Amino acid sequence: MAVPATVQRETAPTETSSWLNRSLFTTGAIGGLVVVYLVAVGMVESFQSLNVLTDVLSLGRAMIIISFLVVGYLASRRLQRLGHEAEGPRLAGGIVAGAVAGGVSALVLLFVNLIGVEHVRRMFQSFTVNLVDNVLSFGQGVAFGAIAMVVGGAVLGLAGAGLALLPDRLRRATLTGLGTAIVVSLANTFIVAVFRNLESNFGLDIPLGWLYTGTGLAYSGLVVMLAAGFAVSWWRTRTPPEPEATRVEAMSGERSLLGLVRGRPAKVVGWLALLALLVLMPLIVGQFLSQVINTVGIYVLLGLGLNIVVGFAGLLDLGYVAFFAVGAYATAILTSSASFLGGPFNFWVALPLVVLIAVFSGILIGAPVLRLRGDYLAIVTLGFGEIARVFIASIWLQDYLGGAQGILRIPGPPLFGVNLRDPTNLYYIILAFCLIAAFVAWRLKDSRVGRAWAAMREDETVAEAMGISIINYKLLAFAIGAGVGCLGGAFFAIQVGSVFPNSMDLLVSINALSVIVLGGMGSIPGVVLGAFGLVGLPELLREFEEFRLLIYGAVLVALMILKPEGLLPEVRRRRELHERELEEEQYEGRVGEGAEPVLRAEASEDEEKK
Amino acid sequence: MADDTDTKTPEPTEATPGSFQRGIMRLPVRTIILSVLSIVLLIFIVWGTSRTLSLEVSTFSGDGWKRLISDGVARGAIYALIAMGYTLVYGILFMINFAHGEVFMSGAFTAFFMARWLDQTGFLNESPVISLLILFAVSMTVSTTIAVVLERVAYRPLRGAPRLVPLITAIGASLFLQNTFRGFYGASAEAYPTIDILAGSIEILGWPMRKIQLVVVLAAGALMLGLFLFIRKTKTGRAMRAVGEDKEIASLMGIDVDRTIVSTFAIGGLLAGAAGILFVYLFRGGSVNFFMGFFPGIKAFTAAVLGGIGNVVGAGVGGLLLGVLEAVGPFLLLEGFNVPSPNQLQLLISFSILVLVLIFRPGGLLGSADEERA
């Protein structure tokens, strides 16, 4: 059926050509274009206000620096693949590629200056005088900026090539150190807020002056963070002292964060700490961050629901916002005094009704589209999502759904006089429902139903032949997915206190999809990771907000190409996606070493069983 | 995996797997829902139409309906042009290029700056034909470039990957392109300068239409005819058809599959770029922004599906049909029910058509042998 993809990787040629070859210039030119892109799309200037190292390095410039480093690294790796193992040519290749990248960016800079920033700006609005004169040219004139780019590119290219020459473990540790420093510097406001709360709520006064000055890291902070990241990575990649088997077990235990405690004292302590952290979260992070975490929680719920549909059953639903909308609007109509029903119920009475309505709508939407294959299904569900929005916003149904004005005055859930509108209190309710939903999803995954879904996802025809009723299991996936996802909508309605058609757009579906793709489709810890990474982080870094969707898009494409199973993959899913590679590997193994591949297959099966 | 996990599962339906199989789920849910749905729809369509047509005071006279149809044909021609991109790519790679709407947007959005410049120099109204040709050239170049880069960067590494993977990539690429152009050109909507000779209406054989509608229909018709001949007559066209049939065999026959796929994307981009210019001049106000590609993209996809995806003639027919249905449908169906502002529900019409076609006739109207695949 499918034609094997043309293998992209060049195999090492038998005869070695000169190290100064076209690949260096291609790599450099592409790198230069990436830098130009980052500038033109406006990231560099927007991120200029984020300091990595106070008064020395902004995130905007750091992005350019990282691009040049990557160019040098890739150029060096490429030379290695072309058969140049020696250090000299590989370092020189890094310099050349870096200089080319710098040259391309410098040319664009000079060109922009030649035409005049004002003229360029009429089209590419990101080019400002400040960007060209200060950010890129350090206030020393454009010529200086151009030279700095070429020289800087060469130097950074050399550094990148140097990185490529380091032994794996050392390189990983170095990169982890750098990454830690950047992340900690960006998490500045978050960390400061947390420590302020620790002080006011627990009386812990921990000075942070050594870590941050102004809005970025201080030198001492930089050194400590580099060292910390380096040390942790170095320690984690140490050669295992234990026999192979126990290490595999430890690793798989680590993968399933929600897996049962495996009788190790360290693990028990870890789980208790996590529990304490979850319970004390609002006290630690305070009002504003609680709200952010609640939003993350809402997306965890949406992600868990969508994960059942997409991750477990393999039905790509792009109209998940429909269930979100059903949850939010059903809650609003049943509880708000502003709705046409006059708010007959309180939240707790309404909730089961909301879930029932959502499950019913899931079946209603699912039933007609059951026979459709993957990509058609995606577009049709996208259509359903949009239809839901059009209905909600229409003047026609304004009397019932509020039209563009939405429905206001949604009361918080009553609970012994506790004000659940307060995000620090609402947090516990959302957390409880997230845990329930995660538990349901976790139990479903390996149940009879979950296995039926997996079979269906991998091959519908075969699954049907094995006696699995495709229609019932698809409907079930839609129904349960809708039931879980509508909770996200319900809590959204409570958190905001009102619902509007504008909040029910395609972006909700895209966000939820990105969340589960980042973490890994079918993986429950992945949903949590994805929600924190894609929903939580942009809320914290306002500068990122503008580029949030751009980054989502890039993340989706990059993940699908490089690591389609996600960051915290589910084992079975990973094997599915790498089936061909596994087969190839086994084939090569069989050709090479006889019986060895059988052993390897067994080992990976053990891993799956945890 | 022990079976006893089943009974512990908190899902109520799971408590007794046996009754789950035998119980209400045994009912032909799908058939029931489908039959009810089609009956309700049929009643709705007949009833709505008859009520609207029997209205004493209709908003539209005979001339008004004719105008609506002209509008429908013109927008249908644009949908058809964009739909070619979907259908060609689907015909060869069997993937939905979700980002094709953004290919369309990129050309029109970029050409805006050229149009503005031409307008400021006064050239636009001095020699409007040459200006329009320049705009077409700019828009088509940009769209083609974007389409080709898209293929190279996002889709080529994924050939032969499981189905959902390229689709998710396409969604990501769509987001990425939208926001790239938002970053480049800004988030606000910009209005194309007007071209005087395109304003006003004419009558052809007693049928009223705006001049621009005529231009759109003629230009789109010429382009589609060109495409049809290209696919039928040229070597590249034949290669495209061969690759669509079977990539492996085609490559054994000496066809460069990669290059053929690139040219497919390029042709889709070319047509989308042309559609972009026609689009901005067809819709009064002709504003462009980074999100402008989304809905035309979805509608064009609907058109492609309606005509039978993978089928070039089908995409043309589907586009025209969708355009007319979309222009006339809301008024014809809904006005009889006194639904306020029916044009708000235009989008609903196209999505409903999409859903209905996929449910009842997934192979499309000119159903190819593809039906099995759906």
Give a quick summary of the entry.
Chain A is mostly helical and about 600 residues long. Helix content of chain A is about 70%, strand content about 0%. Chain B is built from 15 helices and 4 strands.
Summing up helix and strand content along with how strands pair, one would put the structural category of chain B as: mainly alpha
Radius of gyration of chain A: 27 Å
Order of helices and strands of chain B: HHHHHHHHEEEHHHHEHHH
Structural class of chain A: mainly alpha
Structural description of this entry:
The complex is a heterodimer of chains A (610) and B (374). Chain A is mainly alpha-helical. Chain A has 4 domains: 145 residues, no CATH class; 71 residues, no CATH class; 220 residues, no CATH class; 31 residues. Helices cover 72% and strands 1% of the residues of chain A. Chain A has 27 helices and 4 strands. In chain A, the strands form 2 sheets. In chain A, strands 1-2 form a two-stranded antiparallel ribbon. In chain A, strands 3-4 form a two-stranded antiparallel sheet. The N terminus and C terminus of chain A are likely disordered. Chain B has 374 residues and is mainly α. Chain B has one domain: Orthogonal Bundle (ABC transporter involved in vitamin B12 uptake, BtuC), CATH 1.10.3470. Chain B is globular, with a radius of gyration of 23 Å. The interface between A and B is large, with 80 and 77 residues.
